[in-house]
Write a structure and sequence with these properties.
Blueprint lengths: L4 H17 L3 H21 L8 H5 L4 H9 L4 H7 L10 H17 L19
Length: 128
């Protein structure tokens, strides 16, 4: 049975409230990680400079195998994402955004400063 317009609007408002309150932050982070993994896979399927696909080089021939490789160690996804810093060479704009989001989430969780040169703010030195 299709939802009424009022029901759709209610669900939409509920999602907005959930996002604003931070309740759905874990789900949003998982979604960001999934988008980044799919962006990495898309790059992985393109030919390397040698003409071979990266999957032919490293043996990850399916998305499931590649996902397993990224899940094997907690740092694998982040290391793969950071490998594209600072200029995201070889990625489309949407792939770069997906990867940037995961790096920014990681930096925020570590309370690290942003890694983007154009966003760095230098604090004035205080004389001792």
């Amino acid at each position: 049975m299709p939802m009424s317009n009022a029901e759709r609007q209610r669900r939409y408002r509920q999602k907005l409230k959930s996002r604003a309150s931070g309740d759905a932050l874990g789900d949003r982070a998982r979604d960001a990680a999934e988008r980044a993994m799919l962006a990495l896979w898309a790059f992985h399927e393109r030919p390397a400079p040698s003409g071979l696909r990266w999957s032919d080089i490293d043996g990850c021939t399916t998305l499931e195998v590649y996902r397993g490789e990224l899940q094997r160690s907690p740092d694998n996804l982040l290391q793969a994402c950071r490998a594209f810093l600072p200029d995201f060479e070889g990625l489309t704009a949407s792939e770069a955004r997906a990867i940037r989001t995961v790096v920014e989430i990681s930096d925020a969780l570590r309370l690290a400063s942003r890694t983007w040169a154009d966003d760095v703010v230098t604090m004035p030195r205080v004389a001792a």
